[in-house]
Amino acid sequence: MKNRYIIDFDSTFTQVEALDELVKISLKGHPDKDKVLKQIEDYTNAAMEGRMSFTDSLRERVKLLGANSEHLQKLVKVLKKKVSSSFSRNRKFFEKHADEVFIVSGGFKEFITPVVSDYKIKSENIYANTFEFNEQGTIIGYDITNPLSQEGGKVKLLKQLNWEGNLYGIGDGYSDFQLKESGLIKKFFAYTENIERSNVVKNADHVLPSFDEFLYVNNLPMAISYPKNRILCLCIGDIHEESLSILKKDGFSIRHKTSFEEKYVADVGMLLLGNGVTVENEKLSRAITLKTIGCLGSAKDKIDLNLCTRMGMVVFDDRKSNPRNSEFIPKRMADFINKGSSYLSCNFPNIQLLKQEKAHRLIHIHHNVPGIMAQINSVMADHDINILAQYLKTNDQIGYVITDVNTEYDKKVIKALKKIEHTIKFRLLY
Q: Which residues does the UniProt record annotate as the domain ACT (predicted)?
């Protein structure tokens, strides 16, 4: 049966509510700008949380806009820069599934279509409201006959369309949940990358901290190999709020604790240690999914660097206690997870990389013995894989190889690379 992916626009496909942004543009320099903006935000939230009918909310918001066609052109430029990051990096998914992706929104086609068309979403697959203008190009209203301008509009629209197949709804608001409540869609995914509404989340089939998570759970092609929201980043001890904010913003799953609790040992992927925090070797040796450790201060005598190296854990620390280490250390950790960069690590061969566009990146960490690179390249050749770039650095203990390839990889390649003798860790980055 055909799948259809029904995606909301405001605060889902984009990071913001478009009408809020439009008011910032149309009322620029107006003495009551902040007051009007607050009113519009209140109407938006009331509708999205189910405290006000969508019809009443939309009517009151449009009244306050004071916008024209010129303002809309400026809005489109803003929105194109505000596409949610996980939607933006999965552009290829939309190109491949153009027939299955639909935008269904209580927003307006005048600003939605120019934004989503950049992602190859078809104009006939966009369902939204439309503005009405006077001769001077000023917005004076909207088409009230459009079901999406009415309370329960998304439900009304889908009943009219009478689609068959598996329908999946993705959105942040109450109007999106109503599709699930009506029984018209198979599953409702509450999208929380930009805003989390508790009454929507509690009724969802699945919560999506990112679009990567949706692609992952539905076994669909994605830009990265594993959703970052599934990577557990354990922060221990006195951690500056700036450090937590950097890692949260990057999409990692954060737990802030006073100690390295046993329940996290098996699953932790990143470890950020406050100044002076130590980690016992016994726990460290069992943290087999741990990829990187950051120390807000010196790692000396706090963790066993030789053990970390042997286990393929990249460690970043700041022995000089730089006052900016609360920013510097978490960014180094995130760069390693996102790009494979080990630059300024205190225990690993240093490699600094930019992300390679239109490529897959493979990371191989191994004991420093002769012949590993030849074996890696032999696996590539056996599977007809074209190498775009390759980076190798070693120290006395380990070798660190990053390979960028420009072809779809066979899962047999992954298995073969993991089976190379002396492999410590292997990771498909993206």
A: 361-430
Q: Which amino acid is at 38?
A: K
Q: What's the CA dihedral at 201, 205, 207, 208 to 10 degrees?
A: -130
Taking the C-alpha atoms of residue 428 and residue 393, their distance in angstroms, rounded to an integer, is 18
Residue with tokens 């390693």: 336
Question: What tens digit of pLDDT does each residue of 231-241 get?
Answer: 999 999 999 99
- Is the pLDDT reported for residue 59 higher than 90? no
**Domain 228-339: CATH superfamily, name plus number:** NAD(P)-binding Rossmann-like Domain (3.40.50.720)
Q: What angle do CA 381, 384, 385 make, to 5 degrees?
A: 85
CA distance 25 to 90: 29
DSSP structure class, residue 27: T
CATH, domain range 3-217: 3.40.50.1000
Q: pTM for this structure?
A: 0.83
Give the residue extent of every domain in the chain.
Answer: 3-217, 228-339, 360-428
Tokens found for residue 198: 């508790």
235-253 exposure pattern, b = at least 16 Cβ within 10 A, e = fewer: bbbebbeebbebbeebbbb
The count of other CB atoms within 10 Å of the CB of residue 379 is 20
* Distance from C-alpha of 328 to C-alpha of 308, rounded to nearest angstrom: 20
Specify the long-range contacts of residues 188-192, CB closer than 8 Å, at least 24 apart.
189/214, 191/8, 191/11, 191/12
**Rounded distance between C-alpha atoms, residue 303 and residue 260, angstroms:** 13
160, 363, 371, 429 from 338: Cα distances, Å: 44, 11, 28, 7
The two domains 228-339 and 360-428 share their CATH topology (first three levels equal)? no
pLDDT reported for residue 116: 98
Q: Which of 7-16, 97-106, 175-184, 187-196 has the lowest mean pLDDT?
A: 175-184
